[in-house]
Predict the structure.
Amino acid sequence: MYAVITCLRDEHDLWLVAIAAAICIASALAGFASYHRAVMARRPAAWMIGPGLVAGMGVWATHFMAMLAYQPMLDIGYRLDLTLGSMVAPVLGMTAAFILVRGRPAPALALGGGLIAGASVAVMHFMGVAAVRVPAVVTWDLVLAGIACVIGVAGASLAFMIDQGRARDRRAGPLLMAATICILHFSAMGAVILRPDASMVLDGDLISRQALALATGAAVLLILSAAVVIQLVERLTQRATLGALAGALDSAPSALAFFNGAQRLIFWNAPYAQILELYGVRPHEGLSLTALGQRLVNSEVLQTRLKGASLSRIALDDIVAQGAFPTPDGRVFRIEVGDTPDGGFVLVMHDVTEQTLASEALARARDAAEAASRAKSDFLANMSHEVRTPLNGVLGMAQVMDRHPLCEAQRERLSIIRESGATLLTLLDDVLDIAKIEAGRLELEAQDFDLAARIRAACAPFVPEAEAKGVGFTVEISPALQGHWRGDGARIAQMVSALASNGLKFTERGEVVVRAALQADESGVVITVQDTGVGMAEDDLERLFEAFAQADASATRRHGGAGLGLAMTHRLAGLMGGVLQATSRSGQGSLFTLVLPLERSTVAPGADDEEPLALRILAAEDNRTNQQVLSALLTPLGAELVLADDGQAAVEAFAQGGFDLVLMDIQMPRMNGVEASRAIRALEAERGLPRTPILAVTANVMTHQLQEYTAVGMDDAVAKPLRVEALLQAIVNVLDAAEPAEALSVA
């Protein structure tokens, strides 16, 4: 290092050294800039000759300008052949390096290009020094010379790697290359050792320092000319390319703007200019992004999104992340920003006004549909409660009366009452089920059940009706179905009942046959209902499973019904992963095929027989008729029933203790059933009492309502109108599930 500093201080003209350094920096920047433009334009390898010529001539001019600054107090001459030959090496080396790398971000390529460039600079330097003739003996400090070569190769490699690393400042690589060339030169010059020899005489055909100065000046002029020509050609080529694209881009539906690495506008299309004109801004080449932001201060949307910050490349990313961008003329744009290899970016604005309006309309329609669905659900829930409550009294008392001695005429009239009430209840259940399915609220239960028994039980009520009509009614169940299965047995029985009812309703003569068997691949169960009734035309099959639809929809149709049974069965089958299909011919009957993917159960459920209860039961019920129904149903079975007129009275009665079960109505004055159940659970926790089962007895049995009951601590729910079998089964279930088990006696 000392030798280098001494060489610079004592043997060089520092002004010329500074000029040499300036030439080196300028040529490196110009050469790399030309290289980058050629890469961006995707020029062929031959275009790298221009950048290589500028950078290589700059290296040569730097060396010989520094040699002019070298003043060892001796006469100096230069061999013409070696001087010219030293010019070839850096031009070829820099050109080869640019061709090898060519914008490909591969470290190995950048390293290879740097090795070639650094080696060519070293070759050029030592050839240039070899061209020097002085009356002295020249020797070398080989260590320092070797260090100079290593610095040259390593620095050039690092310069290419930095340049190919997509640094934000494109000047970093070229400046490092210039520094490397200067360090290599002066380090190598520091390694030169001259021993003057008066006996040595310079040849007469050498190049003088004046001639070398002229040659160096010519080289510098050539470098500048080449750089200007290359830049001019690139600029003209760029303008020609942009001009060719301008017409097509002006007709593009999206607004386009190109900003260079300095974030200045260099190109835009007509839609982009039209958008800026909405803000009173006329675009022009060189308009900076910051200045553009300052011109858009009248945009409330832009200022809101910038939040006081100036418009920049980073701020653009924030605006893009915030979504659609409205303009003063009512349009909405989606902005995209893409970076370019030179550090600039492309701004694209897509007009999404129609899509936005469509999305908003769709959202409004969705909200309206959801509101309508909620209103329908609320209406059905209210109607369910209002209809089930009086129907509970009708059917409950009918069941009670059926247990007393009656004459034949009374029993026949009572039968009509029960059948009519049951029909009305079935219709109500079907309507609610359809509503639940449409709202996506119907939930299926997975329980163990006896499939054969459920099918027989579902078909049993139709045997007397078939006998009365003189129609055969047969149930055939394959032995392979015996045993217990896993699924929603109640819903399967509901579907079988609907299919059997439909077949019998449209059959005046012949028979109805219900068959159940395994699928051929044993993956599920196939249940068919075949009748010899009126059948239907092929056109009627297309709307057979629509709600409230029938083959004969005229006001004078012979067969009644609301047209819900088949629709509900079809949708239930779909929810279970199965399928319901129908085939029919007019006058020849119909065949309905229900396929369900059921699995066998490994655990047999307990006995389903009804067992009389010996329990002390608290019943919260505000309706007098329903109180009488509960008393009439439960008292004969040995239950001690304590009635409470509302939820508050029920909580006060429960506080006295001694109850095995609570039957809780929901809609009651002072305190409703949900609040009362919550209070009872709180009372148990406060006193450390064992948990008493609470059974909701209500007409409000939609899915979201049942979930609310469970959330406050209720154990199960029984729907009104009450059916004694369903009530007793629910009581047995909640008592069996209680810990410790409640007292349960068999009469």
